[in-house]
Amino acid sequence: MRKLGKMERARIDVTGLGKTYGPVTALTGVDLTVAAGSVLAVLGHNGAGKTTLVDILATRTRPSTGKASVCGYDVATHGHEVRRRIALTGQFASVDETLSARGNLVLFARLLGAPARAAKARAEELLEVFGLTEAADRPALTYSGGMRRRLDLAACLVGSPEVLFLDEPTTGLDPVSRTGLWATVRHLARSGTTVVLTTQYLEEADRLADRIVVLAAGAVVAGGTPAELKARVGARTTTVTFRDEWSARWAVEEFQRIGLAPTLDPDAYTVTAALPDAGVILALLRALDRYGLDLADLTVTEPTLDEVYLSLHRAKWQQPPAPAAVERDTA
Amino acid sequence: MNARHARTTRAPEPHDRTGWTGSTLRTQVWVLTARSLRAAFGDYRLVFFGLLQPVVLLLLFSQVFSGVGSLPGVAAYDGYINYLMPATLVNIAMITAMGAGAGLVAETYTGVVGRFRSLPISPVSVLLARTFADTARLAVQLVVIVVAAVLLLRFRPDGGPFGLAAAVLLTLVVGWGLSWVFVAIATWQRNVELMQAVSFIAMYPLMFSSSAYMPLQNMPAWVRAVATVNPLTYAIDAARALALGRSPGWALPLAVLLAMVAALGGGAAAARNFRRSA
């Protein structure tokens, strides 16, 4: 093993990783590297192989082909060493529902080797940080989705994991809980924890990750920083709704005049156009204001995961099959 | 709302704080057994019906089959209850052992076992804890049913309190061994319905093609053949002999040996399956 400083050493190194369940290929030829203290988002639909990838890295499943190491230890041969350094939360790794939040946190602390008193103290600390003090003695069974997710994350942080795996941490959460969870993940990454999270939302990956890999049908179809990926995927879209059809038709010309390619929906009085950059919005509003056009609504939407997939497929069809499509993550 | 506020202003300090990266096997088994016991005895409804079930079973069998008491081979026991009761102990052990497997599957389903599998703890301690907790549950059940049988059904074993205690102790050993078989099935199947289907297929022949309810001499030849290779027959014979103050002969060491073989074989299979992919 190379002697490198803690922060520069790659925490996760994956080459040629594959997993088959009988005739089903869940993962194939995955290469990636995650630097210490960085956040990797694994983006993909259900069944893309996200959970399988996390399960292999967390030593819950053995790879069929290829190699993966976490914190310098091979997941297939040194699982115990890996488990000493990671924490995992997701749909298949949860808490004891019959125990309270406090009971769960004390249990996990004890299992990690904390003496009884220290385990209790750590549990109190985490209960407070995650806002679970009031519900601390109720069985986890009675918790709301948001509370459960907070407890799951708290359970992960009982020890001092070097690498944290979060399998779809915000699926099913309300917006406020989601923002709270994002803040926690950012804070953890800033204080040196390496985070791997899976998500179906480009927006989430964009907000949290230093690097993103896109999985489709078990293979990495794209990778890079959020900015690189968004540049490849294309622009955000604006949709402007007017009070009447006449205004909408008039606006189309204004859109064109500042260099956009608008689409008119005369029945809904809306005009939609892709935005090359955020600055165009200002020019657009000035142009519309000059003629006193009255807006009913204006929205700017991020590209969705579907658009990511579509644009990647378009890129594949337009170019000869280039290895660039499977960009290596070399952090 | 100030909970959320606290969360964003005072996030957890994860690094270089605790240095907890693993515990000893003894701590693991102790902590996990305590957890399972709390779960088993925490819900008074579960405790009540769990204890009621074997009593109902015993009442039904002792009354429905009371005519068996006059059959040759049973008459010498001075009442069917004396013949039936020691066998009932072993059968309760079997049902509780099956519960150990079902419980493990249920926990895999709710996800806490999933987290255990990602912690730096030994799979053996997770499984050991499960079987210890279930054996503790079994001990309470056995005491309750013995008291019930003595008070309600005029169970008067010739072996006295010591013989009875020996029979209960043997049953605990057998029950512990059996629980490993069902834990192994649970780690192999991981599906509650399938697990139960497989377990029932294993359970009924073991329970009925044995000397539990009727002496072997009254059975058709082929059932007798099955019963002689049924390991439970030896456990039942040994428990009966101990309770009734007779010499158990080879049945006792054989029953203990079989329980140990079940524990070792089941344990090895379960530990291997436990780490295997979900």
UniProtKB/TrEMBL annotation, chain A:
GO annotation terms (biological process): response to antibiotic
Topological type in the membrane: Peripheral membrane protein
Keywords of the record: Antibiotic resistance, ATP-binding, Nucleotide-binding, Transport
Stored Pfam families: ABC_tran
This protein's GO CC annotations: plasma membrane
Transport listed as a keyword: yes
Statement: the UniProt record of this protein carries the keyword Nucleotide-binding: yes
Domain of life from the UniProt record: Bacteria
Every ABC transporter domain range: 12-242
UniProt subcellular location: Cell membrane
Gene3D superfamilies listed in its UniProt record: P-loop containing nucleotide triphosphate hydrolases
GO molecular function, one term: ATP binding
Principal location: membrane
PANTHER family, A to Z: ABC TRANSPORTER ATP-BINDING PROTEIN, DOXORUBICIN RESISTANCE ATP-BINDING PROTEIN DRRA
Designated name of the protein: ABC-2 type transport system ATP-binding protein
Automatic annotation (TrEMBL), chain B:
Tree of life domain: Bacteria
Membrane-protein topology: Multi-pass membrane protein
Stretches assigned to the ABC transmembrane type-2 domain: 45-277
PROSITE patterns linked to this entry: ABC_TM2
Location in or out of the cell: Cell membrane; Membrane
UniProt entry keywords in alphabetical sequence: Antibiotic resistance, Cell membrane, Membrane, Transmembrane, Transmembrane helix, Transport
UniProt main location, coarse: membrane
TM annotation in the entry: 46-68, 80-106, 138-156, 162-185, 197-216, 250-271
Gene Ontology molecular function: any one: ABC-type transporter activity
The keyword Cell membrane appears for this protein: yes
A GO BP annotation: response to antibiotic
Gene Ontology cellular component terms for the protein in this record: ATP-binding cassette (ABC) transporter complex
Annotated family: Belongs to the ABC-2 integral membrane protein family.
Protein name listed in UniProt: Transport permease protein
Organism: Actinokineospora auranticolor
